[in-house]
Amino acid sequence: MDRESSSDEEEDRQKLIDQNERHGTKSPKHSTFHMDDDNEFKDRIGNARRLGLPRFAFNKRYLFAIFLPIFIIVVYFTTDIRSLFQTSVSNVTFDSSDSRMRESELRALYLLRQQQLGLFKLWNHSFVNEANFDLSSNPNSTVASSVNSTSSFTNSSPVLHDRFSALSSSALLEDLKATVLSQMSLNKQIQQILLSTHQSGNYPDLGDNVTDPSISGYASLDRCRKVDQKLSERKAIEWKPKSNKYLFAICVSGQMSNHLICLEKHMFFAALLNRILVIPSSKVDYQFNHVLDIDHINKCLGRKVVVTFEEFAEAKKKHLHIDKFVCYFSLPQLCFMDDERVKKLKSLGISMNKLEPAWVEDVKKPTKRTMQDVMAKFSSNDDVIAIGDVFFAEVEQDLVMQPGGPLAHKCKTLIEPSRLIMLTAQRFIQTFLGERFIALHFRRHGFLKFCNAKKPSCFFPIPQAADCIVQVAERANAPVIYLSTDAAESETSLLQSLVVLNGKAVPLVKRPARNSAEKWDALLYRHGLEEDSQVEAMLDKTICAMSAVFIGSSGSTFTEDILRLRKDWGSASLCDEYICQGQLPNFHC
């Protein structure tokens, strides 16, 4: 029994040993000093927390909160913070003030330069006008005599020369006032800019018009304002014709403008002789009813003073006869009429007596006559008389050239464009130009030969003409120029490229070709007048006469008729002048 039990114990012990060897790799033995693995350590810590044991783990936020106040206290007691920030701000202020002062000085220097240029321009202008004054005050000089001899070619040139001389003097005075005012304004701007560095706030811009209170009343001075025509001093005669007495108008010289001047003088003669004026037939002259408002003349005088040829023929019951034909001009031929003109008159069924001279009178050297001279030579009891072309006649020029003409009437002027042309001109201005524009009559075609026959010539090279136009544009302060010209495209293109003010081209506007999309010329189109060359010429005149400032061509009757309209309408400006007035062409043949 004992042996069996002992063998069983040994067998059990052996099984136990084998089992322990099989599990040795999974459960290694631990020494006394071996610490447990992480999980075991965490379990122990967790158990410790649950048991309420104290924790000594560190937090970074707590450290930052502790050390920051300490750092600030140390910096505060070791550094002068106030002096540090004060130095920085003062440096910024100093840099800003210095930059502002430099900018003000540069702007002041710019304005001083502008003031210097303005004074130089005034200085040079005074020399030009001094030369012109010497020219007019010394008629014995070569140039003056040449000017006087050529001006007599045009009928109204002597009077116009005197009128433009007076206007030039007024314009010079206005230029002087405006220039002085401009320089005073510039000086004030310079003062303000230099003082601005010692003041707070913004300083004035270059465009500001800073003026002194003592001259504030002249701040709106317009250098190109309208001319005072002094209508209260106007003298006029009454035109009260007899109902059966007629003066048959005959105009031969030149083109439409010459004929309009001739008609105006015929009206003066008819008034002196108490006769009704007969407007020439379109078969021997221009079709005046297309360009003139003939009824307007009768309405202005309140009675029948002019009649058309058709009305005259009806009144005379087809018995058309000129009872007396006394010629105002005898040279170079009687009445300044050739045989061709006489044949045209006779083709209308007009018979006439022999032409006879009133006196010896040459169209190239007309004598100044008085109203008494005319009445003494041409008064007659005959029903119908004619005196020939009177375009070159010089009778009471001071009276003829005054605003409104020599006759008493209730309108601004007697001979003016038709209503259709007036409305078309206004619509064109409304469409393309606006209220303030310059009008330029630039006569070129056929003018080279005409002007070169004069001494000195009146034909200016385009660069010189462009420079003169720019000077007027600067004075007038107008944004656009209406161009009425017969020049070729090559000339107008060059002129446009040279008319530049302050680095900007001043547009030269011409009437465009007919375009159905544009309505400004619809009235002429509806009445079949859009292709009438005389209507187009009168339209050009009307637009020019309505401009703020007009530049004309010396020696052109087209220009003279525009000046007449401007004078009568009250649109004449102190800046109106001929191209390069007071200058000589810088090149001539």
TrEMBL record:
Basic and acidic residues bias spans: 1-24
Supply the name of the protein. Answer: GDP-fucose protein O-fucosyltransferase 2
- Species the sequence originates in: Actinidia rufa
One GO BP annotation of this record: fucose metabolic process
Q: Which family does it belong to?
A: Belongs to the glycosyltransferase 68 family. Belongs to the glycosyltransferase GT106 family.
Q: How does it sit in the membrane?
A: Single-pass membrane protein
Which cellular component, as a GO term, is one annotated location?
Answer: membrane
Enumerate the GO terms in the molecular function aspect.
peptide-O-fucosyltransferase activity
Kindly indicate whether the keyword Transmembrane helix belongs to this entry.
yes
Location in or out of the cell: Endoplasmic reticulum; Membrane
List residues traversing the bilayer. 62-79
